[in-house]
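Lecture 7 notes. Example A: sequence first, then its structure tokens.
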Amino acid sequence: MNADSAFFIGKDHTICEDYALAGVQGDIAYAIVCDGCSASPDVDFGARILAFQAKFGINTDSQWNPKDPNRVGSYAIYNARNAHKIFFPMLHPQALDATLLAARVKNNRVMAVVYGDGVIVHRSKNEIKSAHIRLTSGAPDYLSYTLDEPRMEAYNELENNVKEVHTSYDGAYDYKPFVPFVYDSPVEEGDTISLITDGIDSFRRQDNSSIKWEDLVDEFTGFKNFEGQFALRRITAFKRKALTENWHHLDDISIASIHV
């Protein structure tokens, strides 16, 4: 197995608030991306804290139970809060406002969990499965809200706020906010699983017309080989193509991919 990640700043940002991690530990491969909230301070740092705390729990089998997916997020956010308080008290209290997408491959099975919004792509020999998760309000249900009752209450008062899930394999359906989306599937040698933040929705042509995320799946995950930094190479090549086409992305983008 191999795993790689990459992240890039968006045109509308002065600092990249996305972060991504990927790697292999023994018989486990992992991929993690976090997208910090642009309206909150210090989230570039907070996204890193949250991602690393999710990584620290990657070997704990009891957390990675598809029937109880909240364990992955609970572990990550509570430990991120403790790290914030103990080691980085100078950061703003809202620094941990970030989405969390995490995937783990072990024993020929992948489990991926999405807290907030983003995209999952599972490419196998004969099929490409994808899931796109978004909140109708445009405001993700950050795990950090679960640590702050007033902010949680304010978020829950948003009208007509639904977590919409569009999959290529099971149609479309709705979730309530703070219910994580779970993708659980067997994998075979040669499969790839990629997590992508919602920056994939922010691509625009020269005339400022939007480019559908579905049309970019191959650009992001059509890896030519899987040696070394394969995700970084793929996105770097796509960004060169986008430059020649006069395309741009407004939001930050991060991707983390596992090759089985």
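Example B, a different protein, same format:
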Amino acid sequence: MNILTLLQEILGPYKKFSRGENYFKCPFCHNPKNKFAFNENNLKWHCWHCGNRGGHIIYLLKLLNLPKKTIRQFKDALGEVDYSKYKKPEEKEIILYLPQEYKPLWKKEDSYEYRNALAYVKNRGMRVDDVLRYRIGFCDSGDYAGRIVIPSYDSENNLNYFTARSYYNSSLKYKNPPVTKNIVCFENLISWEEPIILCEGMFDAIALRSNAIPLLGKNLPKKLERALVVNKAKDVIIFLDSDAKMEAMKMEHHLKQYNINTSLVLLEDKDASEMGFDLSWGQIDNAKSTNWKNLIEQRLSII
């Protein structure tokens, strides 16, 4: 399988031009026209609409968070390549846009999709002020059709991530943008002087409502770690499922090295978005701090 066939499986149909240029739809700005150029001769990529570019196609695949198996297929198709001559693009160079079909959920409209999207949000326990505060929207067409869209903004109110959750029974519940998760999610809403709650996903953070930062997984992003230190955070509560016990305990002890008062909540059955505000905060009020002995015992128990 050649490189263009593999790339087509990820980015969709392309248009072939001269001198090795091939144009796809951009995975960053979602422009409906094929503005994303990939040159099969020098293996570089560049979107002529949003300006995102990179030194090698493999770096793009890593930004897209593709499985290692898929990246290996590309490397096999490319053969031997000297990657040292290609400059790896810095994360700050990547500019993310909301899907062009994004519609604010707080702007009422008389449509079947709007009513379904709104019903889903209400069933998840979200209120009108949650929708406004987190700028929650939906898409009724395009690549993110049938999905609730929750954007995240950095301290300067620049979009740094979004998640798109299907409000129908879809086999693919979440469809996330092809950018790094090494961010501070909801950074523009955080008060570093107040206790900070670290949870797994955006829906959990919204359910907690007060100073919650989604990890977008179970591990601490480097940028978030740096932000906690630079902003001199005093109190942190790690609020994760019990299946992330080891990750949570390691995170707790790691943050304590910075003299951050860190405690832990491990949930057994339901996450914050399922429990709701009152039950979640009941757990947080009883948060406990583990010691080094607890961590060693936990590690020994899984050997």
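Note on Example B: The chain has three domains: 3-93, 96-179, 181-303. The longest strand covers residues 159-166.
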